[in-house]
Amino acid sequence: MLNRRNLLALGGVVGGAMLIPTAGAIRAAGTTEADVAPAGGAHVHPKGPRAPSNVVAPAVTPFSVRMPVPPVLQPAASRFGTDFYRMNIQPADVEILPGLSTPAYTYNGQFVGPTIKARTGRRVRVTYVNGLDRPANVHLHGAHVAASSDGHPMDVIAPGAERVYDYPNSQQGATLWYHDHSHHTEAEHVYHGLHGFYLIEDDAERYLRLPDRGYDVPIMLRDSKFDEHGTLVFAGDPALRNTILANGKPQPYFPVAARKYRFRFLNGANKRIFQLSLAGAQLTQIASDGGLLAAPLPLTELMLGSAERADVIVDFSRYPVGTQLVLTDALAGPVLRFDVVRQAYDDSLVPSRLRAVPALPPATAERHLELRFDFSGAFPMGLINGLPYDASRNDFRIRRGTTEIWNITNADPPPTSHPFHMHLVQFRVLSRNGGPPRPGENGRKDTVLVAPGETVRVQATFDGYLGKYAYHCHFLEHSAMGMMGQMEIVR
Ligand code: C2O
Ligand code: CU
Ligand code: CU
Hints:
This protein has helices spanning 4-9, 186-191, 203-207, 476-480, and strands at residues 77-79, 82-94, 102-107, 113-119, 123-130, 139-141, 162-167, 174-179, 195-201, 216-224, 243-246, 249-250, 253-258, 260-267, 274-278, 283-288, 291-299, 302-304, 309-315, 324-329, 333-343, 365-374, 381-384, 396-399, 403-410, 418-422, 428-432, 447-450, 455-461, 467-473, 484-490. It has 491 residues and is mostly beta strands.
């Protein structure tokens, strides 16, 4: 749907090399939204001259390809309580649409990067080698890490260089993910494939006997748009990215046994809200961004803004072999089909209590953040408290170890939502417009959807590290347009 105001605001610069005016229509809680791609949206293709054409790829027959599970990366070495990994950030041609080759930016040649499995209390060091012709970096989303390993937007790996990131894994088990965070190019890089899972497991969680091994499956959902040759189309309206991928395949099927599974859903889309249901089946949410909830939460619909995660138990034992259940998004339609293909023994449990989510210490400071777009200038800008991101500016100085309450207001009109994300911490959602948080938001969170007009109140303790960290809207087209701020944790 066209937003005339946006287009009018862009009238003077339409056709300029730096700007691609678009009219987005990403649903926010059942509505549509008009939006624009960030400046710089006219991008150079990762592998050179192959620019996308204007012809959209033919639709793929739903459920014709199998959903892969991203392979787990093996450490190159393990010693002194540390696992050492190497990962190449490299261009690669990948097959996403059947029979077509898609030039992508990848980790180790895989469109959904290899999964790193870490353990609480055991250190991980990853050496990333940047084989791209442009700066890149890596942010471990949801992790509690030193600023030097956080993938600050300005802290990039030059082409040809390598860089070690150090992850102490001093937090509890959680479904994290890693992705590019290079300033102003994060949206384009992540869209082209710089994303992967990083799972932290802990002993206490293991004792719960939740479904594990082959029955614990990470699923990254995202959207994309392809031309008829299979080239990813980044520029233009994010709402036209209507090919939905699950673990990098379009509307795949996934064979399952008639037993319980743990699915770790990640919304890896730059700019989309998923609202998922599974043919009326009960979904039992057991974890949010930062790990286990206090207790399992039965749901029939799961809402995930960009970058949010939810671990969900699905019990297929109620369905006879031969049953097919389609995971459907309220806007995009069919996403993924689960095919019950065999019986299986199941000794997994979903205990009625999972893990305490203790209250944080009392807050000693309260802040207010107002997120909104400014369409008055030559090109639209994303603002927090009236300012676009400036890495040389510290918006907040926060004393290490203190607890704060942040009131995050989305001052944009419907239907523009902003999924707000803070680095370094897992916060608690205290309230939403003065009312209770949504079910599933009462655990540890690092990203929270803020609907138009809403104020979401969160509480966080900024402990452990000093230095500069980002917070931002995780619609990456929005953060790339400036909707990002910087906090400095000080002594
Ligand atoms: Cu998912 Cu600033 O990151
Ligand atoms: Cu992050
Ligand atoms: Cu936003």
